[in-house]
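Try it yourself: sequence plus iron/sulfur cluster, in.
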Amino acid sequence: MKYKILASCLGCKQCFRICPVGAITKGPMKINDDKCIKCGECFRRCPSKKIIEVKENV
Ligand code: SF4
Ligand code: SF4
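Structure, out:
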């Protein structure tokens, strides 16, 4: 399982601020899978539900 930010992200940057390991980069918002520890904080925080859980090998 990994996390992915949808293209319809509104750019509010709440996920960027909450990520404990700095795995999210701005403009456009993107998750660096090599840094992400899969904590799910961004997934829970996004007010617009623009972060989804996806299967690792998809
Ligand atoms: S799941 Fe956790 S570590 Fe990964 S991008 Fe989201 S907040 Fe950062
Ligand atoms: S919290 Fe959601 S809407 Fe805001 S920048 Fe992150 S993914 Fe986009």
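One thing you can check immediately is this: The first strand starts at residue 2 and ends at 5.
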